[in-house]
Amino acid sequence: MDLGLTGKKALVCGASAGLGFACAHALVQEGVDVVIVARTEGPLREAAGRLQTLGAGRAEWVAADVTTAEGRARIFAAHPDFDIVVTNAGGPPPGDFRQWDTAAWHRAIDANMLAPIELIKTTVDGMMARGWGRIVNLTSSAVKSPVDGLGLSIGARSGLTGFVAGLARSTVARGVTINNLLPGTFDTARLAGNFEAQSRREGRSVDEVRSARLAKHPAHRFGEPDELGRTCAFLCSAHAGYINGQNILLDGGSFPGVF
Ligand code: NAP
Questions:
Q1: CA-142 nearest atom, ligand 1
Q2: Å from CA of 19 to ligand 1 middle
């Protein structure tokens, strides 16, 4: 299927690795010119090089922290207009809410609620004026299926989810859709880090922790980042203009409800 994306320009945040890189990869394969962003220059430059070798869309990079106003300003100074924006950054740490002070909450809200809202604020009016745009926020399955200990992530991302639900209804008539992708458990460096932390906490090997999680998963496997990346590309496609304001769960069937 031709996704109708050739020549579009995309900003993909948190994209030197993991799910953000997978989104950028899928978009470049569809002929989209991407600007990828992450904080650490070396891996980011290397990731842009890998995208460039696909020989489809072009890949540029800007090293910036998207959770800061200064970082976001650096991106838009170099590239003022985008047709597609994928918001993403690292998730907040897990823990017991009794240990979190106001500063911890502010960091989570800055990264996982306000940064995406600021990125949308800077880009959505230009998209609406041009009559076409796609915004995809990477959030988490925990927004729909909460997990004790992930309160910072769930709290901040739920704020974003509620905000987007209202905004998306006001942009779609001008050709701009806004949707959220909710990853369950995907095989990325972040997941490996989570298993290592759990193994230290529980005094079990990483393999035991990983196997126990897989045994409980209905698919008996974790998601491949490419599966999420291609879903993101479809949501950005010319064919997805009537999918708007949705929270799309990619969790291999872990969520136990019907809807
Ligand atoms: P990952 O493998 O750790 O990759 C994170 C990427 O984001 C890296 O490129 C990282 O590069 C970049 N990044 C982190 N903080 C940033 C910032 N402030 N500004 C710009 N770039 C930033 O993580 P992932 O597994 O792909 O997860 C991506 C998001 O999805 C996270 O918010 C995570 O909580 C959420 N999520 C993941 C899963 C999963 O199973 N993997 C499940 C649910 C939710 P630098 O460090 O160099 O900046």
A1: 43
A2: 7
Q: Which two tokens stand for residue 249?
A: 């769960």
Q: Measuring CA to CA, how many Å separate 77 from each of 4, 69, 181?
A: 28, 12, 28
Residues with Cβ within 8 Å of 101's Cβ and at least 6 positions away in sequence, in order, are: none
Residue 41: partners with Cβ closer than 8 Å, 6 or more residues away? 63
Q: Has residue 68 got a pLDDT over 90?
A: yes
Is the model's pTM score more than 0.85?
yes
State both tokens at 206: 């990483």
Of ligand 1's listed atoms, the one at least distance from the Cα of 153 is 34
Of the chain, the percentage scoring pLDDT greater than 70 comes to: 100
b/e 187-196 (16+ beta carbons within 10 angstroms → b)? ebeebeebbe
Write the residue with the smallest CA distance to atom 2 of ligand 1. Answer: 18
Please state, in angstroms and rounded to a whole number, the distance separating the CA atoms of residues 64 and 67. Answer: 9
